[in-house]
Structures are given as structure tokens and as C-alpha cells.
Write a structure and sequence with these properties.
12 strands, alpha/beta, elongated, five-stranded antiparallel sheet, seven-stranded mixed sheet
Amino acid sequence: MSSGFKKALKPLVLHMPYLGKVMSQRDRYLAERDVAFSRLETLDTEKQSLIRRNAELIQERESLIGIRDKLIVEKDNLQHALASVREPLDAQMKQLNLEKYILTDALIPHRPWLALDVEVHEAHSIPSLMSPEESLYLHWIAREYYEGVGEIFDGGPLLGGSTCAFSSGLALNSRVEHKSKRIHSYDLFLYAEYYMAQLFTGADLQDGESFLPLFLKNTMQFKDYIDFHAGDILTMDWTGDPLEIAFIDLAKSREINDHLVKQLFGVLIPGRSIVAHQDYFHFYCYWIHLTMEYLKDYFRIVESPYGGTLSFLLEKKIPDELLEMPASEVYDKDRSLRLMEDSIARFRGLQRLKVTTAKIRLLAALNEMEQAAAVAREVRNSPEWIESGDMYCDILMDMSEAQNFIPRTILFPGVADGTKLCGISRRYNIFSLDGEFFAVPATTEKFDIHDASDRIRDGVVKAGNFYELHKLIGENIMPTPPEQYT
């Protein structure tokens, strides 16, 4: 090897370690490149998969959009179909008995007494102020609910309607062996023409005369079940025996109500006893609402029939001190109004209106006449009254009689003195003069029946009698009772 060649190789020999490092780094980079290329291929495969899935989702979305569009078309078709039948259905609803739709749902979830194998007339055979359904209810409660662990209090049976309803049910109750004298019927059994005449057709009775013989005749077939008590309930004490069923249709005064609470509520059986107040949905007996709200921690509202009755189940024993019904806790003005509002808040529809008429009566008793008149106007302007007030004579009667406790000049401040109100309907007040009757819109602020121009003003309807006026205005008319105030 020549010295020149050796001289030329010398630098290369000196840099061989560096070249080795470069070659090693190159190999590492190449390996990383191959890994990256492999990862890119994987990502490309995943991308293609995602593109395919995206296409599938687009197809599914288009399919769902098609289904949505079909549903929209079907909805529109259904709306058109409903619109085509809504008007005739609304017209039919106005002709139906609306009680199923305006009662508080919680009170009558299924009304099992309507499914009994018994005809209405079998339980409602005696003339009564109860509805036929209330009679069926009493029959059912004595037949299907009553266990015989306590007695049955039958308060205010008049001719024996409630007594026979209870008795006919008890007769078919196979669970109770001892049935003798289990039904305790309490009543004055004295005739009062004002509200009894419609029940005592054909009976020649004078006010204050006893009709006990008629009661005994009507209940003769069930006499073994009945222990009757004639006279003033305020002078009578309960036997002290446990009470399983208490049907109360004689709490016609605050004093009687308080007496019944003291005598009966202490012997009720927790978890078992039922108290059925027949005058709950009625304008007159506001003390019932105050009492049951005062004791609301001890009772629970249970299934009740359509009519005036509301039933309560005793859930726990009432302390003796509460049974004394302290006036400051129940009948104090502010306290009583709060209790009444609590009662009203429980209900809707006509039930709410009927309890509100009891508030009118309460306010009148408290001598809060302006407030009573304001509540009366509130009732007559309510949607429930406007929609169905003309279909229910009972709510018309309650309003007519509740308003009767308010002076005319306060109830109708725009009506001239001396103008006699003789009836109301859903939208009208009825006034009379010289044998003619005038239906005046309830919204009228001022009316003088002695003014000829008022009698012929727009909106006033004139007729010669109630029947003719009823046909002209198309609404039921409830005559107003004799005035309490002048």
C-alpha cells in the first residue's frame, strides 16, 4: 500500500465510530417510520369504518325522519278527526250528568256500592232527602264494610230512609252474627212543613206533629235490627258502646254538632270507624266543616257517594280535650275562616262551590255581610258555576238559601230598595212586580223594577210565570225562600 493511499484513508479511519452511530440512528428512524406507516394504515382502516358507519347513521336518520313525517301526518289527521267530533261531543257533554267529571277524583275512585247485585229501589225504598246513591252507599257499608265490632248510629232518618238502607245491608251481612238492635236511630220525629212537605205526600200532618208512627211502619220489616230514640238529641247520651259507623244527618245546629262530637267521637274505633256527614256538601251546616278541619289530624277522607255526604275514617284516637270543642279553637272568627278555607281547598268543581256556599253562611253568621256578598258574587262568576250551574238544582238551592242570609241592599247594591228577589238561575236574578217576572242578568249593576225603562232594557226577559220564564231563558230557576232580612 502506497504511502499516499494510507494518507488518504487516515481521516476515514478516524471517523468510523461516528459513522457507526449515524447508521444506527438511521436504522432506528427507519423502524419508527415503519411503525408510523403501520399506524397510518390502521387509522385509515378505522377511518373507512367510520365513514361506512356514518353512512349507515345517515340512512337511519333519513329513515327516522320519514317515520317522524308519517307520525306528523297521522297526528294532523287525528287532530282533524278530533276537531270534527269535538263540537258534537261538547254538546252531548252539556246534556250529560256531569257529576263523574266534576267531583274530586280522590273521593270516588271506583264506588263499589254501584256494583252490588241490588236494585236502587231496594235500598232507596223510603222517601228521603238523600240521593239514591247515598242510600246504596249505606246499604253497602252495612253489608260489605261493617264487622259488628261496634254499633251503627243512624242520625236523622226522618221517615226511615237511612234506617232501611242500613237494615237491608245488615240483613245480607254474613260476617255479623249478632244483629239485634245494632242500628240506633235518633230523630225528633216532628213534622216541619217547610222542608218535609215533599216527602210526606198524602200525610195529614201539622207542624210539630209526630210522624214516629210512619217511621215505625216503614221500618217494620227490620224492627229487630233497630233501636229508635225519639226526642231532642241534646237531651240524650250515647250508650258508651264502641261505634263503628256514624251516619250524621241531624247536626242542624252548632250545639247539636258539638254534642255529637262529645258523645260519639270518643267511642270511635281507630282504623275502623267511619263518620259519614250527610250535610257536608250543603250551605247551612258550616260547623261541620270547621269541626272536621279542626280534627283533620285524626281523620282521613274516604270513598263517598254522590250527594251531600262526605265520609271520614278515624285513623287514631282523639284526645279527650279536643272533644270539648273549645270555642276559641273552632269558632273564633279568624280561626273559623282559616278552617273553612282549608275545607274549600280540598275540593274542585261543584263540590268546591257547595262548600263555598257554607262559607257564605259562616260569614253571614259572623255578621260580615259585605264579605259574604263578595263570596256569593265570586261563586256566580266562577267557571264551574257558568259551565254547569244550570244543570244542578241543588247548587242553585244552596246559593239561593245562602244568599238569603245577606241583606238585599248589600247583596245587590245597585238594586233599588223595595225590589223583591224571588229566584235565581245560572245567569239571572229573578224579580217580580204585579204578577210579572223579570229575569235580569246577574252582572247588572243597577235595576229598579218600578222604572218602566229598566223593565224593558236590553237583556231583561219578562214572563207571566216561572215556567214560561224558564223556557225563555233556557235555565233552571230556584225560587228564593222567605227573606231573612228586610
